[in-house]
Amino acid sequence: MIRLHLRIHYHTEAGSYVTVVGADPAFGSDNIEKSLRMTPSDGGYWNATAEIALNGKHPDDRLVYKYVIVWPHKKRYEAVQTVRYVSLQGLKDGDIVETRDSFRAPNSNVFVTTCFTEAIFGPCGLPKLDSMLGDKAIGNNWRLRHNVLNVSTPDKNAADLVAVRFVVLVPRLLHGHTVHITGGHANLGAWNPEHKVHMLNLGQHLYGVVCYFPRKEMDFEYKYTIYDGKDNLIFREKGTARKMIRPKDDKCHFLNVDETFEYLKPWKGAGVAVPVFSLRSEQSMGVGEFLDLEYLIDWCKKTGLHIIQVLPVNDTGMDPSPYSANSVFALHPIYLRVLEVAATSYSDNAMTSLGKMKRSESQVHSDLRSLKRKPDASKVPADLVETIQEAAKILNSAPGVEYKSALATKLELLERIYNDTWKRISSSVDFRSWWSKNMDWLPAYASWKALLDSNDEWNFTKWDKTVRDVPELIEEKSPFYKKICFHYFIQYHAHLQLKRASEYAKENGVALKGDLPIGVARYSADTWTNPQYFKMDWSAGAPAFMGSAQNWDFPLYDWNVMAKDNYTWWRKRLSHMSQYFQAFRIDHVLGFFRIWAIPVHNWTGLLGHLEPCKPVHIKELNSIGIYDMDRVCNPYIRWWMLEKSFGGQAREIANRFMIDRGSGVFDLKPEYSTVAAIGEALPVGSLATVDEETSKK
Fold first, then answer.
1. Strand order in the sheet with 595-599
2. Phi and psi for 612 in degrees, rounded to 5?
3. Contact at 8 Å (CB) between 227 and 180?
């Protein structure tokens, strides 16, 4: 058993407090209601003491915990991208450990997300000199002798010596850079850069080292520094130096100091937002394509831009709106470069070079530069190359994007390539590996596409096949098998091309930011495959106070059902798209918290309500002078309105659809009480309005 004194500096608001949460029973076993509540002291410090059993369950000898700020009705957690822990390596029963922690705010931890670590601050062709792999004892073992220091380990002269474990979060670290600590004490180099102390990469942008100091000498200053691979100083922390203060408990010989690197200036970056379809190049076929992103990446690198945000790239079928996704997993075939698909499919070498991305960084960088040139079409049938080039010429001559023509042409050409090469591609190791990793969505999506192609009806509730038939549909003897495999083929090549663009972006220090629509198309592969997650009798939209009321015709999510499996569908969606994107924009993110819900039988957005919402009591309406509930809750129809809207046909409309209550007051008949019921009985455009009648006269 060891004793742990926790200390953190955090200025709280009145009515709030700081608590410590973790898996250890002393921290509440991850239950915030049973967590270790801290006690405030002067200067904004909070303190707590815990007894920790060394024989408890502590993976990797790490005592993991986090700080939470608690108000009566809300909580503020530390950023979750990095793990805070006290190392238990080298500690013995009876030891006393003191911490000096700083709160890890989200604004710093954003720099340790993949957007920065894999792209913006990523390799850019540089080797990663300071690996997080290997022995981390220098940064974790309290009693390990440090051969740089001319002092004994804590086991000798223990009454005078304190082991200090310095841990610093360095969020903005480029590949090839290393972290060091320097200070006024001789064991930190006495401010001499030649004798600075190297810190070990502990992972998650945490760097640490254990140093030893005589207790009486623990009144020195220090700073963290960053150097490049040639030992040139890149950053020294801003402001005055940090101050080391000896532990308050004279029996404490172990001090854990956990801090965040203080940069001189805030990081600033800019980017460009663009639809992929607008990136037309000489190699495109009437519409911007995934591989056209490489030219934009080159431009971003030259101009110093760091992020490319694109509109959604999911399959929307013949609907040109990128926000009407037929699948949140499938990519749109319109963004495929057909000649690249042909070169990849007809040539084993091309397929291998595109399909295998996990090689050394230098190899990938070299390959991607060469692959950006025109594809090697030497193995592609000459007549097919000519057809592709002629189609591209025609479509590229259009002043705008001929969406339907471009998609139809590409699908026709892709089907020919598929027929010629599918047998060989489907048996390749690369394809089989990709197919097995996408089994949880791909067969159902491809089956849905094949059924859609064979039906004249979008409403899959009228089909004779359901998602339960997928195992039968994907069998080789199925009449849909060939069509299903065609969609495998398309998605495989779409994956290869977007993945290639993504890798090229990261190699050049540019992050790709994807766009996730808040909803999915009503009769989509997602609603067909997972109907339990959607409220199909409701539509999402926007209320009138945000402009004109809108009905997007996206079914609402059933969040209660999604919560039961820990939001598996959303987790899979984000995980899948993170193959290609390092950051995301979520369209209408407010929809996660509230949404304008419209009954499906209402085609406009006027008759909806916010969900969730609080009801308005009749007494509240009465208090502001509203007493006529029929006026505010039911359609308000008067004879003068009918005459104004329908002119000479007003009486015909009234007799067919309404009940005459007298005095010019009308109600809708029960069988015509919804927009959908009226629309089905009276198709739009079958009746002329007053303006149309006047124009005819």
1. 550-557, 534-542, 595-599, 609-611
2. -75, 160
3. yes
In DSSP notation, 266-278 reads -----EEEE-GGG
Q: What is the pLDDT of residue 133?
A: 53
Q: Please count the other Cβ atoms lying within 10 Å of the Cβ belonging to residue 382.
A: 9
How much is the pTM? 0.85
Adjacency order of strands within the sheet including 511-516: 271-274, 307-310, 511-516, 583-586
**Entry field: residues in the chain:** 697
CA distance 485 to 432: 12
Contacts (Cβ under 8 Å, ≥6 apart) of 188: 181, 182, 196, 197, 211, 220, 222
Q: Residue 576 and residue 569: Cα distance in Å, rounded?
A: 11
- In the chain, how long is the greatest CA-to-CA distance? 109
C-alpha radius of gyration, the chain, whole number:
32
Q: What is the dihedral of CA 344, 347, 352, 353, to 10 degrees?
A: -70
Classify burial at 166, counting beta carbons within 10 Å of its beta carbon; exposed 0-12, middle 13-18, buried 19 or more: buried
Read off the DSSP letter of residue 314. Answer: B
Q: Which amino acid is at 454?
A: S
Cβ pair 569, 636 in contact under 8 A: no
Q: How far apart are CA 399 and CA 405, in angstroms?
A: 13
Residues whose CB is less than 8 angstroms from the CB of residue 393 and which lie 6 or more positions away in sequence, other chains included: none
Per-residue tokens: 223:
């700073």
Look at the block and give the residue holding tokens 């003897």: 477
**What count of other Cβ atoms lies within 10 Å of the Cβ of residue 74?**
8
- The 10s digit of each residue's pLDDT in 198-249 is 999 998 889 999 999 999 999 999 999 999 989 999 989 988 999 999 998 9
Other beta carbons within 10 angstroms of residue 155's beta carbon come to: 12
Q: Are 306 and 259 in contact (CB under 8 A)?
A: no
Retrieve residue 309's tokens: 């945000």
Q: How far apart are CA 58 and CA 53, in angstroms?
A: 10
From the list 611, 583, 448, the residue with the least C-alpha distance to 528 is 448
- Within a 10 A sphere around the Cβ of 47, how many other Cβ atoms? 16
Q: What is the pLDDT of residues 57-94, one digit of tens each?
A: 899 899 999 999 999 999 999 988 888 999 999 999 99
State the amino acid at position 189 in one-letter form: G
Structure tokens at 78: 């530390």
Q: 274 with 290: CB under 8 angstroms? A: no
Find out whether 206 and 167 touch, Cβ atoms under 8 Å. yes
Asked if 244 contacts 180 with a C-beta cutoff of 8 angstroms, the reply is no
Give tens-digit pLDDT for 462-510.
999 999 999 999 999 999 999 999 999 999 999 999 999 999 999 999 9
